[in-house]
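Protein data sheet
==================
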Amino acid sequence: MRNAWVRIVLFDIIKTMTSVNDKGIEISSYVKSFSLYIVPVIAVILTAYQLIKSKTKKEISYSIVSDQLLANIHDSISSTNNIKILIDNKAVHNIRLVTLRIRNSGNIPIKLEDYSQSLWFLTSDLLISKKLINSQVTETQPEGIPTQVINIPNIGASGVIGLKNVLLNSGDCVFLYILLSDYSEEIKLYGRIEGVKHIRKEQFVQKPPFNLGNLIGQTIAAIIISILSGFLLALPITFFLKVNILYVGFIISSTFLCIFIIFFFLNLYKRLFT
């Protein structure tokens, strides 16, 4: 009884979507209109919604590009072999080099007036105690971002070492190195920026360069695969229902293409603006 009810429902659905005439069974005009107009409109609306939703994200993040121990001498080795590492005539056990990247990972600029507290990563007492040997900006993306590592006296008890306030557009990056001695604690980025709830730590991943040729090639391949897949999936449907393969293939292919368009624009937006 249950199987018979399912067959009746399926028959009603197929009957609604198709029509019978002297040419056989054809796809209903409602389905044709849906595939021609409604599906692409839905795809465009969903894509626009995703772009608008993520447009106003203000965010800054940091990542540890590298953390290397350049030299390390144990007490037993130093006392036995009379080997020492001297920094300004002060013996130290190890020297550590940390490369830090600071990035505007949001979609809108961080302006000078947005800084309530400058970005900083170490306290100034480390400079006084010689644990902080040196720290400098090594690279900016794009080139020429006018910033540098400075001593900021008005934060904390003894001040902090941080970055000079600077305009950071979406995707802008600042790379800096931190040379330390006898300091093993994790390097973190602090600060207070209007509209940013917290500074996020992210995993550093080397981003491959944007290649327009590859993008065009992948787009053409995806379109061809979508069309071929749609018509291949339409073959068994047209065989059993005796419907026009062009209509069925067009419906399935257009659905695949709309899905591809959504992911294509979202991926392109992320590659260019994040």
